[in-house]
User: Fold this.
Amino acid sequence: MTVLTTPAPTASAAVAQARSAAIEAEIARDPGRFRVLTGDRPTGALHLGHLLATLDNRVRLQDAGVDVVLVVADYQVITDRDDTGDLPAVVREVVLDYLAAGIDPARTTVFTHSAVPALNQLLLPFLSLVSVAELERNPTVKAEAVDAERRQGRGMSGLLFTYPVHQAADILFCHGNLVPVGLDQLPHLETTRTVARRFNQRYAAARPYFPEPEALLTPSLTVLGDDGAKMSKSRGNALELRASEDETVAFFRRARTDSERHIAFDPEGRPEVANLLRIGAHFAGTTPEDLAASVADAGAGRLKAVVTEAVVEGLRPLRERRRALAADAPAVVRDVLARGNARANAVADRTLADVRDLMGTVYS
Ligand code: TRP
Assistant:
């Protein structure tokens, strides 16, 4: 497994990074100005990659006083597959992972796409605001379509093609103004900004109705799985947060390293070793460089032992919370979603009513 660095910054990435730093300062000053919308496709229980790349950051924002809204994007599961698996069971696992990681349902809204009809209805006017040519240029959709073709031999579905616009509905239904993203997600946010801008121009010229949400660039850590590729549920190379201690030990035993004995932090040249160093450093509260120096000539075996220990200890509180919650899982999760869906529906109903008003489609 490995943690890769972000791609070489382009001009627009540099601008986004500078803006994100300014937003962080603003969050520290006035967190109540921000509503963050983000979420996950419920295709499996969450893993170490989710925790390091997104989940910890969401909890940080929540605890800083930002209004966080999390969509469990069940309609996104059917963008690229026919078999959704046992959705109620998967959604339950994802919600348990959120709670165990520190998401507090009293402060953070957790809802599912399919339970919020007014959100989904926004997709229709929003689709009218973008062209097919624009949708075709989205590099992430292209990459996902290639992946769906390779994995399941199926062509791109209409829902996959249009899901960036659906994400615009996810973000705008609640007037989200901040979206934590990795660099590869910037094109999606551009779609949302375009939809918001064009809606305002066309229907709310006098007083803009939707915010143009901004990206909060996350210090993007790509955690690698035990096969050296990016950790992902669908590759079967992930360490799930809910895994046992024994499974964690076995995972790191399988993890790839390289044939050089001396351990050093070299993300470009030695991605697998760098990945272990980043994960270990994260949980041990040190830097990859210092961790590398402490292992040095003791080699990959020692490195794995140190990282395994740090992860097992670091995840212990999360796993204990998760086990306690899981004992009451159906009821706990039902309550969280009932509350979150009710909140999301109230907000979405209001937004759709405003949108119909602005579009002149209220007839009685
Ligand atoms: N596509 C995201 C994922 O799989 C989940 C998601 C759905 C999302 N809607 C969103 C993220 C809107 C950000 C904004 O991880």
Observations:
- The pocket of tryptophan is lined by residues 37-41, 71, 73, 76, 167, 170-171, 179 (CB under 6 Å).
- The chain has two domains: 11-221+335-359, 245-326.
- The CA atoms of residues 111 and 337 lie 6 Å apart.
